[in-house]
Amino acid sequence: MRLKVLCSSVAIWAALTGGVFAAQDVSVEQWLQRLQEAQSTQSYQGAFVYERKGTFSTHEMTRFSSSTGQLTEHFLQLNGPAHEVVRTNGQVTCISAAIADKVNSIEVWPTHNIALDPLHQWYDVIVLGETRTAGRTTAVLLFSPNDQHRYPVELYLDQATAVPLRSLLLNERGQLLERFQFVQFQPLPADSEQKRGNTASINCLPVNTQQELTDPEWAATAMGRADLNVSWVPPGFVLQRSNYRPSVDNDGYVLSQVYSDGLAHFSVFYEKIHNLEIEGGRHQFGPTAVISRRVMHDRVPLMITVVGEIPLGSAERIALSMQSDQESKDD
Amino acid sequence: MSQDILKQSLSALIDNEADELELRRVLNASHDPELRASWSRYHLARAVMHNENYSAQVDLSANIMAAIDKEPILQASETKKARKISWLGRVAVAASVTLAVLGGVRFYNQDILQQDIMLTQTEHRLPAMTPAASPVVLASHNASNTPLPVAQAATGQESWYERRLPSYLRQHAQQTSVNKSESGLPYARTASLEGQ
């Protein structure tokens, strides 16, 4: 009798775990597929917290996806200054006066669909299990990097809508670097925008058109050279976009290039420095590493700055990969 | 009196006969220019007595310190395998819970402490550090003669960073895209920079 019980329990256990192992891959693919689909169709309303070292803030967010395909998002910071942003189809249409002058481009937070192939190449995606977030059942997806050049990410997807309700960025030791987490979440029917009307307050000012330079050639000439780039980036990171903007406090320009591996991002900034004895520096702001380095490029002193949610060592290596001709010119 | 003791310790150190107390005493006073001069003189005397060659006045310490400061800090990176705990591993984990409770708390705290130290070090490790201020430049007896342009550069650099860093961070946060359904994250990153 005892043996029978033992045998049957072993058989049941084997059947269950075998099923789990077999289902694992399918379920990862299903979740990623659902995540992609939810990106454009789901309407919702909720409140979330954002936390990194030294910062904790709370925000309210509403998102409408109309039947015609128009997507409107409204963000409002609930603590401190009432930062407010409205974005329609990926373009910022209105922004509160407090940060209006700081946001100097219309292409703020550009959207893109998750590309699954590069993700699978550089991350192992594992379904860790289920838990609750904002009162709802969520599936936990771990994006575990294959090398040391990117951080692990835990994404908690709502069981019903596949909207990410929690996103944790960890370092290589598993310590929390950044938390984005809904505390309240309410899915909305697709046609709810008409009923509720425009939610933006009067403090939210319409955004002026494009301050970004439309003539990159001219700015490139002003920078001295057009072929500025770093010669090494971590494997998997590809150039997404590059643009010139007027500098903050001189009449020069800043060239910025954005690289991404599908999940993590870093930006490289190039700026001409005039008669400044600056050597560089390194900073860490929560998850964001900042490395600055002075290089001589064709006799032009440039400051190259790498900013990104990647390990400090990788950011440093990117910055160092830009060859300086300082040695030969100085001697 | 204390100078004499110090010089005796120094002499003992040069003859390789100093005990730990004496070594510490010399190290503590190593910023003293007089002691450095003595160090150099004793070496010269020793070289003459032993009929050895002595290349005097070669000061490498400042250059070495500068080179060390320029050296990039490479973060030791570990792989992420810790998270891949198989069911077998879980059994092992359960069995070692007692050990973890006893020893783990202490280790974990140390780990966090080290991490914090690392972060503070990186924040402070801007090149505004003066190599001569370091107390471990025993061999340097003319460090003050070497030109150190770092001090006056520091002010220019700080103001440059004050202006640039927020703008770079902001621009990076703005042009970061995650995906269409997670647009709250880059927005929150940008908003979190406004309070600073």
UniProtKB/TrEMBL annotation, chain A:
Keywords: Periplasm, Signal
Domain MucB/RseB N-terminal residue range list: 27-186
Localization, UniProt: Periplasm
Keyword Signal annotated: yes
Residues in MucB/RseB C-terminal domain copies: 228-322
Signal peptide span: 1-22
A Pfam family the protein falls into: MucB_RseB_C
Subcellular location, principal: periplasm
Record family assignment: Belongs to the RseB family.
Protein name: MucB/RseB C-terminal domain-containing protein
Organism whose genome encodes this protein: Denitrificimonas halotolerans
TrEMBL record, chain B:
Primary localization: membrane
Subcellular location as annotated: Cell membrane
Superkingdom per UniProt: Bacteria
Alphabetically ordered keywords of this record: Cell membrane, Membrane, Transmembrane, Transmembrane helix
Membrane as UniProt keyword: yes
Chain ranges of the Anti sigma-E protein RseA C-terminal domain: 131-176
Gene3D superfamilies the record matches: Anti sigma-E protein RseA, N-terminal domain
Transmembrane residue ranges: 87-108
Residue span, Anti sigma-E protein RseA N-terminal domain: 7-82
Polar residues bias spans: 172-182
Topology within the bilayer: Single-pass membrane protein
Region of interest called Disordered, as start-end residue ranges on this chain: 172-196
Similarity section: Belongs to the RseA family.
Alphabetical list of PANTHER family matching this protein: ANTI-SIGMA-E FACTOR RSEA, PTHR38104
Identification of the protein by name: RseA family anti-sigma factor
